[in-house]
Design goal:
single chain, alpha/beta, Rossmann fold, 7-stranded mixed beta sheet, two-stranded antiparallel sheet, 20% strand, globular, STEAP_metalloreductase, NAD(P)-bd_dom_sf, Diguanylate cyclase, P5C_Rdtase_cat_N
Length: 191
């Protein structure tokens, strides 16, 4: 069993909490009112909008040292839905990793919608969670959390692959915003 802290109580935070709970893991769910409450989990999921990351990292940086920190954000321009807001050669996850050098930073959960996480399927397919990161043990821990809930975990490669995962998340969000796909659907993986 893994102890997981989730910072963010929105639909994604709640869906990830449900996934972890289904897998038998303990979950601490922290909202804005809990800013002074320490994140006690071995794994800390940042389930907040991209603009909130800098404040969380600034406030909680020391307490996140040594922990597995999972970034789920998609740094999308939500006014226009026409671009990512990070440099073309970077990612939100790379920014977090630079700000938290003593944490083991992963990118995951950003290419799925909350509904597909909660239901465990995308159409007829098992929901797949892509995980990018440079720490093999951290990836193995998160993989076990994901698979213990009946979902599929996929190793997307090194942390530098976060950029491509963010682009995929951006594409899915922009298609849903344009009502070309449903917010309860999304991309599935056939293997």
């Amino acid at each position: 069993m893994t102890d997981i802290s989730i910072i963010g109580t929105g639909t994604m935070g709640q869906a990830i909490a449900a996934v972890a709970g289904r897998g038998g893991h303990s979950v601490q769910l922290l909202g804005k009112a809990d800013a002074a409450t320490p994140a006690t989990g071995e794994v800390v999921v940042l389930a907040v909008p991209y603009p909130a990351l800098s404040e969380i990292v600034s406030q909680r940086g020391a307490e996140l040292a040594g922990k597995i920190v999972v970034d789920i954000t998609n740094p999308v321009n939500f006014e226009t839905f026409d671009s990512l807001t990070v440099p073309a050669d970077g990612s939100a996850t790379a920014e977090i990793a630079a700000a938290l050098p003593d944490s083991r930073v992963l990118k995951a959960f950003n290419t799925t919608f909350a509904a597909t996480l909660a239901q465990g399927t995308v159409g007829d397919l098992t929901t797949a969670v892509q995980i990018a990161g440079d720490d093999a043990d951290a990836k193995a821990t998160l993989t076990e959390v994901v698979t213990s809930a009946g979902l599929r975990a996929m190793d997307a490669g090194a942390l530098k692959r976060a950029r491509e995962l963010e682009a995929l998340g951006f594409l899915q969000i922009s298609l849903a915003a344009a009502e070309q796909i449903s917010w309860t659907g999304g991309f599935g993986v056939v293997a």
